[in-house]
Design a protein that fits this description.
Layout: H1 3-21, E1 30-38, E2 47-55, E3 58-63, E4 68-73, E5 79-81, E6 87-92, E7 97-101, E8 105-111, H2 148-156, E9 159-167, E10 170-177, E11 183-188, E12 194-199
Antiparallel strand pairs: 1-2, 1-8, 2-3, 3-4, 4-5, 5-6, 6-7, 7-8, 9-10, 10-11, 11-12
Length: 207
């Protein structure tokens, strides 16, 4: 094989690797307040408005100083890799906040929770979905869980995601309970907190 051919193959492999890194279109953005703290700091780090976006498990955090963190999910729930390959772990930080921790710093993202939900289901006029809230999921509604933490908790409780549907800033995710095979819909508002969880017809869980 000629050197030029080897270079061409190597270049193609690099291009494919870069494409593989790019997540699916990151949408579902929400305005938030971000606080950056380096390890050992006793004072609050630089804080201010930021944008938090999440789609298909990928997370983007855009700070007001121009710094952007692109986090790619790993196999372990709540664990990511940033664009430089650093390990990042997501945990609750109390209230309406979540914490993303690097080996040498952390970013605390705090959301403004809406006081009420007045949106409508994208496929019908009834945001209640026509069912009731599964008993094992009642404590997720208006809880401190946010964004991908909701997905992690749904999977831990025995549900498998079927699909997402968005309408404006609102997101509906459809899940099938693995034991009963019943279909439920989880509604999340712009801040990505859970506003409602309801049983829905089985047809809603068809892709």
């Amino acid at each position: 094989m000629k050197n030029s051919e080897r270079i061409g193959i190597a270049s193609m492999a690099l291009a494919l690797a870069l494409v593989a890194w790019i997540p699916a279109a990151v949408a579902d953005g929400a305005d938030a307040m971000c606080q950056v703290r380096k390890d050992g700091e006793t004072k609050h780090g630089a804080s201010g408005p930021c944008t938090f976006s999440q789609r298909h498990g990928y997370v983007d955090i855009d700070l007001r100083n121009g710094d952007t963190y692109n986090l790619r999910p790993k196999d372990e729930p709540g664990v990511f890799k940033d664009q430089r390959g650093n390990k990042v772990k997501r945990t609750h930080a109390g209230g309406d906040s979540m914490e993303f921790k690097w080996p040498n710093k952390k970013i605390i993202v705090t959301f403004n929770r809406p006081s009420d939900y007045r949106g409508q289901h994208p496929n019908s006029g009834n945001h209640h979905g026509g069912g009731g809230t599964p008993r094992d999921l009642q404590n997720l509604v208006r809880s401190n869980y946010v964004g991908g933490e909701v997905d992690d908790e749904m999977m831990r409780r025995g549900y498998s995601k079927v699909r997402n549907a968005a309408s404006g800033p609102d997101l509906w995710s459809y899940w099938r309970e693995r034991s009963s095979r019943r279909c439920v819909v989880v509604h999340m508002t712009k801040s990505r907190h859970v506003s409602a969880i309801n049983y829905v017809p089985d047809s809603d869980c068809h892709r």
